[in-house]
Structures are given as C-alpha cells and as structure tokens.
Amino acid sequence: MVEDADPNGESIPQLDEAEFKKILRRIDLRLIPLLSVLYLLSFLDRGNVGNANVAGLSKDLHLTGTQYNIALTMFFIPYGLFEVPSNILLKILKPRVWIPIIMLSWGTIMTLMGIVQSYSGLVVARVFLGIAEAGFFPAASYLLTCWYPRHEVQLRMGYFYGAGALSGAFSGLLAFAIEKMDGVGGLAGWRWIFIIEGLITVVAAVATPFLLPNDPMSCKFLNDTEKKHVVNRLREFQQTQRADESDPFKWEYFWQAFTDWKVWMSILVYWGNAMPIYGFIYTLPVVIDELGYSATNAQLLTIPVYIAAVIATVTSAYFSDRLKTRSPFIIIPQLFGALGLVIVMAIPKEKYPGAVYGALFIVAIGLYTTITGVVSWNANNLAGTWKRNIGLGLQISIGNLGGAVGTNIYLRQQAPNYWLGFGFSLGILLVASSAGMIMRIALQRINKKRESMSREEILEKYTPEELDRMGDKSPLFIYTL
C-alpha cells in the first residue's frame, strides 16, 4: 500500500499499487509524448546541419579547411555555459513559462539560419542556437525527477531521449524530402531544411504553455488526494521527508552540487557519450556518403541506424529501472560501442562498405543507450531539489562541452578512415567506462558503511531536520548503484 499520511500527519485515503499505476499512466500520457516531441525538435534543430552539409551547405557558403568543424563547435561553447543558469531560471519561472521561451528562441534562430550567406553568419547563428537550446535537456531531465520516483525515471527519460535518437532518422527522411524543394523561391534545398524545421519548432513553442504541467501539486489532471500520493511517494523514494520545491535559490545549493565528487565523476562518464556522439551525428551522413553511396541514399541509410539506437535506448532503460541499478547499463553499452569502433577502424572501407555500415549500428547502440543511464544515475544520487537541479545542470553543461571536442575530431582530409575521430572516440569510451566502474565501487563502499548502522542508531545521533539538511550525505540515504 502507498502511504496513508503525509509528513504533516494529514491522513490520506489508502491507495494500492495497482491504483497508483493508473495515476502514473495518466502522468505518462501528459508528460512523455509532449517531452518526446519537444526533444525530437531540439535534437533535429541542432543536428540538421549535417544533413544540410550533404545537401550543399559547405559548397554554397564556400567553407574551407576546418571552417565547417568550427561552425559546429561554436554551438557547444554557449550550450555548455548556459545550462546551469537556465536550470536556475527554470525553478524560478517554472517549466510552463521557461521551456516555451527557449523553444521560441531557438526555433526563430533555426529559421533564420536558412538565409545565412557566409561562414561568419553561420558561426553567429550557431552561437545563438547554442544559447537558446542550452536549457531544454537539463530542464526536461529535472522535470521528470519532480514527477517520478528514482527507480522509475530512467524509462521515462529513455522514451523522450529515444525521440532525440529518432530525430536522426527523422532528420534524414525529412532532409530527403525537403531537398526536393531545391530552387523553390530561389533558395537551395539545404536552406529549406533550416527554414521548415525551424518553423515547426516555433509552432510547437506556441502550443507548449497550454500542454505542459509544472509539477504534481499545481497540475489540473489529478485531484487533491492523487496529488498528495504522488508527492508522498516521491518523498519516500527520494529518502527525505522535506519538499523544498518552493525554497528560494541560495548560493549554498550551488556549492553543494559544485563540490560533490559524484557530480564530477558523472561528468567524466557523461563524456563517454557527449564527445563521440556529436561527432557521430554530424558526420554519419558524410561517412555513409564516402562509403560510395549517393548523397540521397546516404540521408536515407542513416534512418535504420538511428531506429536501432532508439530500440536499444528504451530497452536498456526499462531493464535498468526494473532491476533498480544504473552502472551495468552504462558500462556495458560503452564497451559495446568501443567494440563497434574497433570494427569500423579495422575493416577496409573501400573493400567492405557494407560491413562498415553494419558496424555503425553497434557504435550507435553503444553511444545512445548510455546517456539516460548517466543522467538518471546522477539524479538518483543527489538529494534536495535545488542540489539535484544544479547538479544535473552542471553534469549536462560541462558534459556537453565535450561536444565541442567531438565536432573537431572528424577531419575531412582523413576521409573515409577518420582515424582521429574513431580513435579518440574509442579512447574516451574506455576512460568513461573505467570511471563508471570506479564510481560504482566507491558508492558500494559508502552504502555498506551506512547499512552497518541501524535506523534507530542514526535517529538517536541526528534529528530529522539535520538528516534532511544533509541530503544525500545523510546516513539514511542509500546510493543507487
């Protein structure tokens, strides 16, 4: 049975697990499809430059040398720097207001990218796109932790992040269709890719305030009793009795997150995704194109790769939640992705293009599968809503600065082998998986030490207020492994 009283002692009618699952399904229907569509648009708008490049962007803008890579890189610098401030504004302004604002901003910028005329214009557009998009992924990730207990959040995160992976497939299909507009209005097909996809985001931004709920207590699709059950269940699974959603921002919350070793170790694990994946996204159509396929077929051949990644992401998230563990579903996929990279580098690409294409599936599955686990693992092990909010922002912010590295490791002069890109990605995957193993061992030792004390001994030593202020450092808090 779910709790029958809240922390203030107010009684709540009992609700069994089956009834509570019905409430969760209603929450799922209100949150997950919407976040999935919005994240698909986010990933689509940041990654469609790869499709535009195959369609002639570099040629028309006369990009030389590493200019294309620099334009990609300039997105990630502001994208990384603005994620923590964005998540602070999210808490202050609330999701229903802040998320549509940033969506409207990046949709407008994406639309205007369709009229850039030079390398400098492309760079400026990418910088502003990075600023505007910075807040969405950490905002959506944090929002899910406000609705779902710690061992139910990764599957939901897997659904909406899977939409990000699906955007790779959708982007290839959409780019294939939009390229047919080449010459319409006197504009090249790659310009229409930016314009149409940007306008779709603008329309979605206008609709979002009417569809997105802020939090359980203020939503309108649950009654008062259901709201209390959702909040109390969150308190139980977060191992705290205090809800600090309404607390004002204090710098001590920032320093709690900034000085937590778990956050920094999780960033290192996150880099095993961020550095390889962005180079992979932007370069995949080009890699396939250089295997001997036509530009049009290269766009279409990206679709099965991304569909496989989506299936793997959701499947991994399901079993991670079901088994209530994170690290195996991070470390094993990272090693799997590393294996795919070894195969890609080892096979002669001119002789066996089909085999290389097949190995790209292994790489995609390894890269995409890990990200929801890395973010969920960090969120599960940070207590206090402000600390969790800022800790997630730091992880994703500094983690995504790795994207600036990832966009500069696939050098045109190394085509079709891309030794630096594939080799560096292999190395960082091995480093990240090792960091994941170290963190699991460290958390396991802390858990054993905490479990050696009885609850009675802990309550004799600390007051409930002291334990709540300690957050995840409380001896009552058991870390997710």
How does this model look, in words?
It is a single chain. Helices cover 73% and strands 0% of the residues. The protein is mainly alpha-helical. The protein has one domain: Up-down Bundle (Growth Hormone, Chain: A), CATH 1.20.1250.20. The mean pLDDT is 85. One of its GO terms (molecular function) is transmembrane transporter activity. This is Major facilitator superfamily (MFS) profile domain-containing protein.
User: What is the fold named in CATH at topology level?
Assistant: Growth Hormone, Chain: A
Percentage of residues assigned to helices: over 70%
Oligomer: single chain
Number of strands: 0
**Biggest sheet, in brief?**
none
Q: Which CATH-level-2 architecture?
A: Up-down Bundle
Give, in order, the helices and strands. Answer: HHHHHHHHHHHHHHHHHHH
The helix-and-strand class reads mainly alpha
CATH superfamily: MFS general substrate transporter like domains
Report the mean per-residue pLDDT as an integer.
85
CATH domain class: Mainly Alpha
The radius of gyration is 23 Å
Query: Helical region count?
Result: 19
Q: What is the count of distinct domains? A: 1
Strand content: under 5%
* Low-confidence residue ranges: none
Pfam family, one: MFS_1
Keywords: Membrane, Transmembrane, Transmembrane helix, Transport
Organism: Trichoderma harzianum CBS 226.95
Protein name: Major facilitator superfamily (MFS) profile domain-containing protein
